[in-house]
Amino acid sequence: MSGKAPAPRVVILSSRSIFVEGIAAHLRQKLDDQSLLVVDVQAAGALEQVIAAQPSAIILDASEAGASQLCDVGALLKALPAVTLVRLDPELEQVQVVTSEQRTLQQMQDLVDVIRTV
Questions:
Q1: How far apart, in Å, do the first and last CA atoms of the chain sit?
Q2: Max CA-CA distance within the chain?
Q3: What's the rounded Cα separation, in Å, for the pair 11 and 63?
Q4: Cα 36 versus chain centre, distance
Q5: How far apart are CA 77 and CA 55, in angstroms?
Q6: Tens of pLDDT along 65-96?
């Protein structure tokens, strides 16, 4: 065994909003700790940190000012073509899942189910 920690399956891009921190806390209860990485979208090198983690899913708050601008979604999708991008928008009460398929999520368990399938 190499002793190297497993790569996180899910990365959450956060500006530390209460909404995103609540999502992270809930997912920590549902997923093991090593499957989840929270990256401060305002930190230097955030994009590189996400790409280096090679996650299967990235969650971001679409309502956070600058979340998409500070961490270029296009660059993420180019560097990680198989990634599932989950954009949460609490203001519009919508979740957008960007993959080759589209799903409607109504409850927190729906989000957990999507993450477990990636």
A1: 25
A2: 46
A3: 17
A4: 9
A5: 11
A6: 656 566 677 788 888 888 888 888 777 777 77
